[in-house]
């Protein structure tokens, strides 16, 4: 016995979905890591820049304080040695500026000063104040004519020692500020040295995860395509089975219609040749209608009236039996085949046991277009027998329902005014089906 191969199982894509979520979470964590590293690097750079600004301002104020003190001392020495008032001008200017420079230095440095800087700043202000008092005292003695006493104060080296202490404290403050600036740059360099390799590692990890994610996406797409192929194969098999059943049904109906045409021709024509000619013409028309029902008649085009007329031509014993009315209305090419199937089935049923199966029976077909663009076709029979429950659930009814789905519309049937009434509503433009 030959083993029948099983259909390929539907691929499972759930693991890839979970893996995709894991990859996404890892990418988010890596992005957070990169953001944190960049934040620390930026913070270190900002701290270094702030320290540069502070050091620049503090060092400039320290130099200005030293320069102003030296200017005051130089003016005092010149006035004491020469006694000329012109040397008082730089002294008086420096004496006025020096306290202001020290106040600015204290205001800038005190809020951020280290303990060493705070002590050095206090000593600097104290020594500068004492030096300024010494300068004022010697100048005042000279102005009072007591130049020898003033010179004695100068020669005592008290003022020289105070100025040396001022220089020492300024140098100490400069050294501390320079060390702080160098420390800020070292910290920034350390952070940068740590961050750059980390960024490279994290960036490499992100690239790797992105490639892995693309691989998962490709696998998921492949699995989805395989699943879609399996589903399409199943639908194709169902469609093939339905077409085979419909073909058998159509062939049976075709023989029934031909027998009905033969009987009709024999009843209406006494001359065998004329009856044979009419029968031949009706069979040709039946073949054309069958081609339209299969969507294979290019002559019918997509005009709704032409389709209806081609389908019903084989069944028209006379113009009074069938009436057609409606505007020129084009339908999509995709609608021709299912619409032909429905009309052919309705015409066959009418010829077998409906309005065209009894003398005096009629079929009226009217079509129109609604405001929303939907085509509406009304099929009204007069005469015939009301369908029983078995007929309502037979293959013809199933085939009509399937064709309605292909049309993307709705078909309703009911028995009214002594005959079958069918209403078909479907979109006329391609792509509008539901």
Describe the structure.
- By secondary structure, the chain is of the alpha+beta class.
- It folds into two domains: 14-219, Four Helix Bundle (Hemerythrin (Met), subunit A), CATH 1.20.120.1730; 269-427, Heat Shock Protein 90.
- The protein has ten helices and five strands, in the order αααααααβαββααββ.
- The longest helix has 111 residues, at 158-268.
- The radius of gyration is 54 Å and the shape is rod-shaped.
- Residues 1-14, 296-301 and 430-434 have low confidence and may be disordered.
Find the structural class using helix and strand composition.
Answer: alpha+beta
Please mark out the parts with pLDDT under 50 across 5 or more consecutive residues, or reply none: 1-14, 296-301, 430-434
Strand content: 5-15%
Helical content class = over 70%
Which CATH architecture of the largest domain? Answer: Up-down Bundle
Mean pLDDT reading: 77
In short:
With 434 residues, the protein is an alpha+beta fold. 71% of the residues lie in helices and 9% in strands.
């Amino acid at each position: 016995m030959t083993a029948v191969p099983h259909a390929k199982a539907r691929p499972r894509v759930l693991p890839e979905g979970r893996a995709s979520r894991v990859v996404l979470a890892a990418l988010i964590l890596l992005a957070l890591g990169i953001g944190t590293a960049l934040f620390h690097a930026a913070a270190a750079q900002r701290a270094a820049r702030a320290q540069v600004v502070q050091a620049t301002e503090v060092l400039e104020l320290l130099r200005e304080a030293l320069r102003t003190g030296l200017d005051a001392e130089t003016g005092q020495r010149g006035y004491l040695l020469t006694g000329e008032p012109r040397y008082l001008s730089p002294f008086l200017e420096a004496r006025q500026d020096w306290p202001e420079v020290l106040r600015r230095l204290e205001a800038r440095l005190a809020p951020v000063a280290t303990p060493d800087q705070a002590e050095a700043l206090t000593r600097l202000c104290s020594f500068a104040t004492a030096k300024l008092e010494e300068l004022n005292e010697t100048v005042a003695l000279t102005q009072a004519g007591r130049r020898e006493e003033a010179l004695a104060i100068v020669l005592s080296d008290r003022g020289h020692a105070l100025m040396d202490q001022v220089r020492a404290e300024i140098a100490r403050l400069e050294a501390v500020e320079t060390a702080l600036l160098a420390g800020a740059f070292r910290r920034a360099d350390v952070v940068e040295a740590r961050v750059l390799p980390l960024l490279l590692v994290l960036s490499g990890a992100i690239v790797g995860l992105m490639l892995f994610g693309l691989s998962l996406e490709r696998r998921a797409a492949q699995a989805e395509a395989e699943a879609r192929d399996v589903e399409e194969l199943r639908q194709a098999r169902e469609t093939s089975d339905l077409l085979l059943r419909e073909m058998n049904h159509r062939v049976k109906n075709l023989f029934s219609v031909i027998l009905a045409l033969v009987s009709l021709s024999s009843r209406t024509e006494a001359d065998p040749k004329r009856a044979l000619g009419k029968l031949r013409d009706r069979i040709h028309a039946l073949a054309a209608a069958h081609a339209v029902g299969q969507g294979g008649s290019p002559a019918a085009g997509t005009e709704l009236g032409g389709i209806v007329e081609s389908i019903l031509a084989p069944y028209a014993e006379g113009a009074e039996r069938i009436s057609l009315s409606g505007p020129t209305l084009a339908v999509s090419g995709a609608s021709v085949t299912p619409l032909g199937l429905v009309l052919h089935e309705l015409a066959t049923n009418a010829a077998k046991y409906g309005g065209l199966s009894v003398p005096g029976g009629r079929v009226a077909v009217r079509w129109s277009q609604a405001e929303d663009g939907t085509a509406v076709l009304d099929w009204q029979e007069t005469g015939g027998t009301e369908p029983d429950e078995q007929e309502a659930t037979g293959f013809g009814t199933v085939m009509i329902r399937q064709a309605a789905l292909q049309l993307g519309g709705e078909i309703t049937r009911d028995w009214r005014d002594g005959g079958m009434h069918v209403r078909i509503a479907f979109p006329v433009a391609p792509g509008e089906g539901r």
